[in-house]
Amino acid sequence: MNQSILEVKGLKTSFFTDDGEVPAVDGVDFSVGEGEILGIVGESGCGKSVTSLSIMGLLPSPPGKIVGGSISFKGEDISHAKESRMRKLRGNDIAMIFQEPMTSLNPVFTIGDQLMEAIRLHNRLPKKELAARAAELLKMVGLPRAKELLKEYPHELSGGMRQRVMIAMAMSCNPKVLIADEPTTALDVTIQAQILDLMLKLNRETHTAIILITHDLGVVAQVCKRVVVMYAGKVVEEGDVKDIFNHPKHPYTEGLIRSIPDLHSKKDKLYTIKGSVPRPGSIEKGCLFAPRCEYVMDKCRTDSPELVGDSHKSRCFLHQVQE
């Protein structure tokens, strides 16, 4: 793997409410190499988005707070960096594409105003050059009529076009790391494919590392080299995409893969993982997946397994017994 540009070690993020501390992310470890595409997968409520907001320094505070671990960008610990430092890093070095472009774009400003603001914050360019750079970015992400689009408002664009604008905005300062939080969720299948192809193209041309956060394993198989599987705020499996798809070592990963509909076979009922993700902090001992696991053992209900392995890691006693 290329040299790590972003490293997350033992990250713990909690929300402090009237009912006490709620641990949303509990000891997450992973790293991203230069130019690598890393997938982070899991059901809603697994801590994927909270992890990304922690990296970006965008946690709502209060109630959110990083209570442990570190986030290192190019060797610098930014987990508790001052807001002034994070403003310089955001956009310029680490950028993020948010889940819903309609709520991420300001409805009362034109596309051009918002794109040029993102560029102007990090590059002091004359107004004419700003407009030319904004139009160039729109062309780069495959949008037609770039100059005309600069004068239009978000509601005048389709969902796919708005998502392309968000990607253009994120790429405006050539970041070293791009975090894409469910970038294709609200889009139809054809537009999804176009957005993923665009991200792969940008990765090849600009060598930007991408962290792709999704619940869609099909997307991960298509674009990622490595994948991190999260469950209830913890990493339960990590490794090469092909290894994990062909030989999953955690029952949760196995369940996610079995849940993918197979177009080549007819079934009366699709496979589902029974139950749901537990509320953060509700399970105080044992494996967090034990209440939903088909292979649960007595040990799983009392002891917490560690994440073990070399290139293919798993947090499961069953895997450790087999090894």
From TrEMBL:
InterPro entries: AAA+_ATPase, ABC_Ni/Peptide_Import, ABC_transporter-like_ATP-bd, ABC_transporter-like_CS, Oligopep_ABC_C, P-loop_NTPase. GO terms for biological process: peptide transport. One of its GO terms (molecular function) is ATP hydrolysis activity. One of its GO terms (cellular component) is plasma membrane. Transmembrane segments: none annotated. Keywords: ATP-binding, Cell membrane, Membrane, Nucleotide-binding, Transport. It is found in: Cell membrane. Residues 6-257 form the ABC transporter domain. It is a peripheral membrane protein. Pfam families: ABC_tran, oligo_HPY. Belongs to the ABC transporter superfamily. This is ABC transporter ATP-binding protein. It comes from Sporolactobacillus putidus.
